Amino acid sequence: MAAQPNTLIRAACEHVCPVPPVPGAVPAVRRRVAAVLADWSVSPEIMDDSLLVVSELATNAILHARPPAELRLSWQHGGTGSTLRVEVTDAGPAGQSLVGVDPDEHGRGEGIVHALATRHGIRVHAGGVTRWAELAAA
């Protein structure tokens, strides 16, 4: 069968890195992600938003979950648009209480992710919990 003239070609890239449960891990992960996204020529319209989403999901894994945590980026581009998927998988809730935590300092991450992402969700599985968000560009 011959190729159709209006068939859209899509390319995909993927990157996986650990999210260490240590102070300073989030800025290091952000720098690594920024370099990867620049290598992939991710559009500037979603670069800043995606780095904020990475920060929020990684911070959540470090503060509220058991290690190990892992970040996975998937970039599909071509055709009529591009989508970046950010996933952070951790070993599940750490069972910490948030009693006494200042709400002005914590608790806004989920709202930020929801505001910036085109789609988002949580998947609970045998290996732990995966929080994900997709950012789309035209």
Describe the fold and architecture:
The protein is of the alpha+beta class and 138 residues long. It is 32% helix and 34% strand. It has 3 helices and 5 strands. It has helices spanning 25-39, 44-64, 109-116; strands at residues 10-19, 69-78, 81-90, 119-125, 128-137. A 5-stranded antiparallel sheet has the order 1-2-3-5-4, covered by helices on one side. A hairpin with a 2-residue loop joins β4 and β5. The two termini are 30 Å apart.
Largest sheet: 5 strands, antiparallel
The proportion of residues in beta strands is 25-35%
pLDDT < 50 runs, ≥5 residues = 98-103
What topology, given as strand order, has the largest sheet?
1-2-3-5-4
Alpha plus pi helix count: 3
Structural class of the secondary elements?
alpha+beta
Helix content: 25-40%
List the helices and strands and how they pair.
Layout lengths: L9 E10 L5 H15 L4 H21 L4 E10 L2 E10 L18 H8 L2 E7 L2 E10 L1
Antiparallel strand pairs: 1-2, 2-3, 3-5, 4-5
Helix pairs in contact: 1-2, 2-3
